[in-house]
Amino acid sequence: MRRVYLLASILAVAVGSLRASPTFACSGMTGLSGLGTVGGDGCFTTNFANVTSLDSLNWGAPISTSGESGLGSAVPPNNQYILSNPNDPVVDRTATANNYQVQVQLPTAYVGTLANYLTRMDDFAMIWSGSSWVAPGNSSPDSFAGHFNSASPSAQTPDGDPLVALPSGGPLELSFLNAPGPMSGIWFQIAALSGDANTYFTASVQAFDVYGNPLGTYTLSEGPPGAGTGGQCTSLSSVPPAPCNDAPYVGFYDPEGRINSIYISVIGNNSLGVSTGVPVGFAIDSLYMDETDEAPEPAVPLMIAGGLAAMALYRRKRLARVG
């Protein structure tokens, strides 16, 4: 039996609403009753970061040939990856903690039509100089002071959630190449890139099966009242800095475990929360996922083998009678 029921129990423990300020509206999902972590508006509400039974991918993990392999440190100029090159060894070899490859690329139809590079960022606005909090200099790691998590101020370090960002607005395609089978669920936090504070946005995650057939789209849109969760988290610039950690979760859950790839895209919303229809850049943090790892039931191969043997015996006897 797939691990859906286990997930339903371990993910049902929420750590507080992620939608306290803006109003979120989510749509497009089916089979949500099996997940047990969705609010009345259809939005994901659970923080998956502490769920150890799910596989994960930390974008900031060192590049490695085995085990978890991320995109490395967010240190310019080594933090830009060209997504139009399918043979890029860094992008192509990104792997989860269980060494399942995740291919990061632009969908084929978009290659050459948009800015096609991915960047590695860390979520912070201030750095510890050794005696005080100061604005980062040009030699500091690339950063986005967004609504993700960050290190505790008492740690006196700027490193926060390791992020990947697509400045063009996407869509960004993630394909799962060598898992035991397609995925059952994919989750991550997302925020729109913007120099403004607390902006609104609409995020979509479209899922496809191994044949490229669409499984559906999960759409999250936010608007007033309250502050949005895109753009800058102003409290990260305070002294000491305080992370917002309220970026919403998006993802896709398929109770039949058929997810082979997903497209991620973000559209800007105006100050009234109404979509502008214009793609905007976005950042996402660590992936959390559930793999479909069922082996065929033992009886099934035996039944097939027995049927083939019976057919062969029947054919042999029939040929003998004819001869």
Description of the structure:
The structure is a single chain. Mean pLDDT is 73; it is low at 1-20, 31-36, 47-52 and 294-305. A hairpin with a 5-residue loop joins strand 11 and strand 12. The protein has two domains: 4-292, no CATH class; 298-323. Strands 2, 3, 5, 8, 10, 13, 16 and 17 form an eight-stranded antiparallel beta sheet that branches. With 323 residues, the protein is mostly beta strands. The chain is built from three helices and 17 strands. 11% of the residues lie in helices and 28% in strands. The protein has helices spanning 4-10, 89-92, 299-322, and strands at 23-27, 55-57, 80-82, 102-105, 117-122, 127-128, 133-134, 162-166, 172-176, 183-192, 201-208, 214-223, 249-253, 261-269, 275-279, 282-284, 287-291. The N and C termini lie far apart (49 Å).
Euclidean distance between termini CA atoms? 49 Å
Helix-strand makeup class: mainly beta
The SSE order reads HEEEHEEEEEEEEEEEEEEH
Give the total of beta strands: 17
Radius of gyration, in angstroms, nearest whole number: 23 Å
Query: Approximately what portion of the residues adopt beta-strand conformation?
Result: 25-35%
Q: Give the tally of structural domains.
A: 2
Helix content: 10-25%
**Which descriptor suits the 3D outline?**
globular
Low-pLDDT parts are 1-20, 31-36, 47-52, 294-305
